[in-house]
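sry for the spam today, last one i promise. struct tokens for design, 233 residues
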């Protein structure tokens, strides 16, 4: 991502940064985001990055296909207004909801998504991992193809956003240490090609805690989007 594009994503005003402990019910999170988006647009609240974990659940975005929900009775399933297809949220996965005023950040949704990708790639770099994007595949991937061997690439971070009146909500999900078997109840993001799977930082052999991930996420976010200030929700 060119430095000029990164510069356009920054503002001089700190973004509020909040971390919720425990497991946050999905409907509660969506309700909060809906209210905050309105407040940001009306100038009554600041931009916000909200870090949390959800109980095990599946969400279907605006492009979700019924056949990609392989185990509809396994966990609660929520239809959501974000872009994308089916994804999983659960303990051990750091969800970061990005409620940002894109009117002040270039009004360029494509560049904003690239900024989110760069955020994830930079975060992974803090742990010595090379995250990559792929044409036609949403999210950030780890190439685990052995030399001379068959393709193996695993998704480690999902991205799905919605924009209303130039305020973004929903965001990213980074796999720190979730139960990867929970992903088998869906076709993640509609991708079922041979050699493609799902991984996490711990699955890659890294002794990363959620607190470690949060530190890396904050440091990397500030490089891409600008300064933050802590907020208690």
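last one done:
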């Amino acid at each position: 991502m060119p430095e000029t594009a990164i510069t356009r994503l920054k503002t001089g005003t700190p973004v509020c940064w909040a971390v919720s402990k425990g497991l946050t019910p999905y409907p509660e999170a969506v309700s909060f985001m809906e209210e905050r988006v309105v407040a940001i647009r009306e100038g009554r609240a600041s931009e916000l990055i909200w870090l949390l974990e959800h109980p095990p659940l599946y969400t279907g975005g605006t492009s979700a296909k019924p056949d990609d929900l392989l185990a509809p009775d396994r966990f609660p399933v929520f239809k959501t207004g974000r872009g994308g297809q089916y994804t999983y949220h659960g303990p051990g996965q750091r969800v970061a909801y990005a409620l940002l005023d894109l009117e002040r950040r270039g009004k360029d949704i494509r560049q904003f998504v690239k900024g989110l990708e760069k955020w994830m790639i930079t975060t992974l770099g803090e742990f010595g991992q090379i995250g990559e994007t792929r044409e036609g595949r949403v999210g950030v991937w780890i190439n685990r193809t052995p030399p001379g061997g068959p393709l193996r690439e695993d998704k480690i971070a999902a991205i799905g956003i919605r924009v209303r009146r130039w305020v973004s909500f929903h965001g990213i999900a980074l796999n720190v240490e979730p139960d990867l078997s929970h992903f088998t109840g869906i076709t993640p993001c509609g991708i079922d090609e041979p050699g493609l799977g799902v991984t996490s930082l711990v699955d890659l052999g890294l002794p990363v805690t959620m607190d470690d991930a949060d530190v890396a996420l904050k440091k990397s976010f500030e490089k891409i989007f600008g300064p933050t200030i802590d907020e208690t929700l």
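The chain has a mean pLDDT of 94. ok im logging off now
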